[in-house]
Each structure stands twice: as structure tokens, then as C-alpha cells.
Amino acid sequence: MSKLRIAVQGCCHGELNAIFNEVNRLNNKEKIDLLIILGDFQSLRSRDDFNSISIPPKYQKLGDFRQYYIDSNKRAPVPTIFIGGNHESMKHLMLLPYGGYAANEIYYLGYSNVIWFKGVRIGSLSGIYKKWDVDRVRPNYSDLERFNTWQKNVRNLYHVRKHDLVPLFMIRQNVDLMLSHDWPSGVVYYGDMQRLLKFKPFFKNDIQAKELGSPLNWQLLKDLQPKWWLSAHLHCRYEARIRHTKRKTQEDTNVEKRTVLKNNAEIDLGLSSDEDTDAIENKQSTGEMKQKGVIQKNSAEISLDLSSDEEHASTTNTLGHIQVPGNENPTTTEEDKEILYAENSDHNKDRIDETVFLSLDKCLPRRKWLEIIEVDANEKHPSYKSDNVYWDCEFIRNLQYLEKHKEKIRERPFNTLNWHEMIKERSIGLNNDEEIDWSNFIIPRYEFDIQKKEVEQTRFFKDKFLRLHK
């Protein structure tokens, strides 16, 4: 099976030139197919964007992105995709809710997305989790402009919302890579926590309380079971391997979703500004691991020895997997399962039994901020031999369902949504034996200066996929 070489970058913080220089150097040695940037991209087009980004004034700088936005001849060294984090120019990215070109060879994935790149299926979720904002509607762009309330809302615009999550939770086909800015909350217990705590000792209380990261990302990881889950946000390298015992049924998902929202208190790790983070890191520099900026990914197993953490051990089974109350006796019928996984069933025959989680640092000297991973490609998918990137058919169907029922979904709390019923309803009228015409899902190639026409890009997407459901 063919493999893609993918460069994975942690937080960007506007350092595009340094990242591209390193990718270009590595690409000259051995071809890199794709670069993924995991948030805090900071797509500042001008100083006017500063009032929509959550960065203290004394740390604000335009960064490198503006060069690529203004000059359409200036391009990334390899195809580049990125997601949003919690330090973003929201005045820019809110114009591209479904994604779009931010520059030549640089594509933003929007609030959430699933795409195909050369036989690899990539899911994404921008922003970070704050439980009080999940069910709230994100402020409207035109209102923010009209009433000049960007600064008032600057710290909540990047919070993940229900409408970002629904299309992802309705996914029932294999995902190869899943991208998020903040970590899934459970992954920390599957890696080398002791080494992590030597580098980030102030994580200890949150780890013990099971409050480090997003519980919704964790639920999505267990539900989607991707080959890789890639994150950033916490400014450190961390790897973990999560074993899956079975494909999640609908009842498992609904019960666990209610559990994580009910039992996980909201946390604030003080990472909302680089000032706070770097101040703490400087105080514990003697315990900091010696790290290189760039690492070539190898296949060596990582240590999963968690025996020294007695408090953690008491909450897990002998395999080190976190037990979630309410998941012991699933009652989903075989008929229900057939409905859930009917679409494109060939894509679900070989379930992934392990997810590799990888988080990387921000672009700084002596930090682990970029790695190369190799990912198996699906040679049967039309994107494999194509130079085009494709929208994902299942995700588009989910967006269409969301658009058609958005008022009903808006009125219901996220933890009461029934995915089984929604997927069943979405599937009504679909012919699962009908071959997908993937030519309808090709993302248009980059056109000169298209990055400066954000509204036009969004209008094209909505006209193509969402107007049918008005």
C-alpha cells in the first residue's frame, strides 16, 4: 500500500517563513506530499485584524502570513492545510466558515471539515472547547462589524459550537487523520505522563482531575477511531496510543456524550496568552527536556507505563483504558447497526484498532514543533492519482442535513441529540448502492488572488451544496 509523507506542524504563531524553510529543506531531501498546521495560524492580513485576535497588545505582530496573502505569486513549498486555534484573526477566518484558500497553496479547513487528499481522508475541528459556549450560537460577522464588538467577543469567537460538531459526530466511515487544536481529554493517560509532567509540571492537577483537554474531542476520538489524531495548543510534544476494542454503537455514543458533558468541569489552563505560558515555562527550565525543532518520525513503540500514578490506576482497567459509566450494556440492535453503517459499507470493513495521538510544540528553537509521518493511502479513491483535493461526500451530506434542520438542532442541547435518529433521517431517500460521482466534490484549484475574495469562496460553497435545502 502506498504511503503519503505528511509534515505535521504544531502551533504556528505567525512563523510561516521558518516553517516553510524547514519543510522546503526536508522536501529537497525526500518529497513531502502535504503540510498540516494545527492552529494558532494567525492569518493577519493587516493591522486592522488585531482587534479580532486574542493576543495582548504588547505581543501583537503581523507575522509572515501577510506576505502570502498580498502576493499571489508567493506560495507554500508544498500543499498546506490548516485549522484554527485560540489565537486567530477571526475577522479573516469567519469569512470562510466552510474553509477556503487563505493564500496560494494554503487552504483553511473552516470550523469543521472532512476532505480527501491523495487517498487520505482528513477530518478537522478548529477552535477550543468551552462547555458554556457549545450550545450558544457564534456571534454574527455583520453584527460584530456593525456594532464594533470584536474586542468584546474576541475570547469566545474561537470556541467550538454545536453546529461545528454535529457534522463530525454524524460521520460513520473511516477517517485516517483527525485534526484538532486542543487535545482530546483522555489521551494524556495513554502516553508517558511522567515525562510530560517533568516538562509541564503545572498540568498535574488537571491531569489528576481528568480535565486536561476537550471531553468532546475525546468522545469523537473513541467514536471515529482514526488512525491518527493530531493536536497542538499545549506547547509540548506528546504521543499516545489508544487501543479500541470495538467500533462504537449509537447507544455507546449517546450515553458517553451525556456523561462527558455532565461530569467534566470547565478548565482554564492559563494558556490563552503566550505571556502566561512562557512565564511558567521559564520558571521550570531546569526540568525541560532537550529537544530538537524537527524530528523524523519512526515506528518505535512508546512507553505506556502508568504504574507510578496510583490515582490514575484506580480509575482504569488493567489495560489502562478509562472506564466510562453507562457503557457496559449497549442495546443497539443489529438492524440499527446496519442503518448506521450502510452507506459505503466497504469503507468500514477493516476497522482501525488503534489511534496514534501526536501533539507538537510551537515554532521555537530547541522545541519539537514539526515531524514527518507516513500515512497509508487508499489507492481506490479518485483523489489518490489526482492533483485535486476533494470535499468528502458523507460530510457534505451531514452539512446538508444540518442546514435543513438547523432550527430544530439549534433548539436542542448538544447532549440530547440522537445521532442514530439523525443519521437514519439523513439516509432517507439515499441509494447506498449508487456510485458517488466524485467529480462533483472536487475543490476548485487555486485562482490568482482568490484568497482576497473570501465572501465569494463561501458563496460558491453554499450555492453548490447548501442552497438545495433552503
TrEMBL record:
Provide the residue span(s) of the region labelled Disordered: 305-334
Q: Name one GO cellular component term.
A: nucleus
Stretches with biased composition (Polar residues): 314-332
> Which stretches make up the Lariat debranching enzyme C-terminal domain?
345-465
Q: Where is the signal peptide?
A: none
- What GO biological process terms are annotated to this protein in UniProt? mRNA splicing, via spliceosome; pseudohyphal growth; retrotransposition; RNA catabolic process; sno(s)RNA metabolic process
InterPro entries attached to this UniProt entry? Calcineurin-like_PHP, DBR1_C, Metallo-depent_PP-like
One example GO MF annotation: iron ion binding
Q: What is this protein called?
A: Lariat debranching enzyme C-terminal domain-containing protein
Q: What is the organism field in this record?
A: Naumovozyma dairenensis (strain ATCC 10597 / BCRC 20456 / CBS 421 / NBRC 0211 / NRRL Y-12639)
